[in-house]
Amino acid sequence: MSAEAVLDAAVLLEHPSGSTVRITRHGAQVVSWTDAAGRERLYLSRDTRSGADASIRGGVPVIFPQFGTGPLPKHGFVRTRDWSLVAHLPTSATFRIADDDVSRALWPYRWTVELHVELSDALVVRMHVRNTGDAQFAFTAALHNYFLVDDIASSAIRGLGGVAYRDKTVATTGGSTASDATEVQRDAELVIARETDRVYVGGPRSVSIEQAIDMSSTRVAAEGFGDWVVWNPWRDAAAALGDMPPDDYRRFVCVEAARVESPIVLAPGAEWTGAETMTVT
Ligand code: TA6
Questions:
Q1: Which residue among 48, 80, 254 is best mutated to probe the pocket of ligand 1, counting the most ligand atoms within 8 A of its Cβ?
Q2: Measured in angstroms, how far is the CA atom of residue 242 from the centroid of ligand 1?
Q3: What is the pTM of this model?
Q4: Do residues 158 and 255 lie in contact, with contact meaning Cβ atoms separated by under 8 Å?
Q5: Is the beta carbon of 74 within 6 A of some atom in ligand 1?
Q6: Domain with 57 in it: what CATH number?
Q7: Number of structural domains, the chain?
Q8: Nearest CA to ligand 1 atom 7
Q9: pLDDT tens track of the chain, all 281 residues?
């Protein structure tokens, strides 16, 4: 399936302002957001993989119950599964996924995740995780946003100055994430000019991608997550991905609302919500 086919198969939301959102049942993944001026704000690779076990390269992948690498498949397992569409109105949609035999073979817990997407003058994505079993569990999570930029060299990420981060591009002995180098971002703005893979520990409520499209900026405000991740593979790692045209590293930056550093612990019956609000400024 091509990127066009991914978009064609997606659930469409339309706002009277003219903005639109498309969400696939595969991964409950937002794969397109156009603003009121008709400009696409999210990156979607034209070489994305699709189909049963594939993760779609672009948009807003939903990461649960494990961010990054670990005992489970990388970035968890809900981004590669089909979700149920449980509500669909012109400007909102709700998707749900629950544990099953396949998930319990990997991770022996009972849970549901609902993703609620709402389009107004902003795009709001809300992720609800509920423990429906009788054992406590811990998880990490993210909304792995791929923001489209006209040119990575003339865009900048604002909001993370003074925040400590783990630099995942720096290999340390043993290569374990726990021992990745920790630094503090000195500059107010981050201009991406090389491979960048950072987990910011804590940080502000909102971050913006300045001069993303047509000189306009994309702002993302998060609640409930606590951490931020910034990723751009740059030339060589983009070429190695295999599902992205090599030069596309210039056309996006991932700025992710994430909970990576201190897992969320849910007691039986308990619920957690993480949300992000994206606006054009
Ligand atoms: O969020 C950043 C990151 O964890 C990077 O380390 C990079 O691997 C990226 O996600 C993409 O992962 P993926 O499994 O989708 O290729």
A1: 254
A2: 13
A3: 0.96
A4: no
A5: yes
A6: 2.70.98.10
A7: 1
A8: 231
A9: 689 999 999 999 999 999 999 999 999 999 999 999 999 999 999 999 988 889 999 999 999 999 999 999 999 999 999 999 999 999 999 999 999 999 999 999 999 999 999 999 999 999 999 999 999 999 999 999 999 999 999 999 999 999 999 999 986 554 445 456 699 999 999 999 999 999 999 999 999 999 999 999 999 999 999 999 999 999 999 999 999 999 999 999 999 999 999 999 999 999 999 999 999 99
Tokens, residue 27: 């991964």
Residues 6+ apart with CB under 8 A from 280: 35, 36, 41, 216, 217, 218, 219
CB-based burial, 170-195: b 16+ in 10 Å, e otherwise = eeeeeeeeeebeeeebeeeebebeeb
Owning domain of residue 276: 3-280
Q: How many Å lie between the centroid of ligand 1 and the Cα of residue 3? A: 19
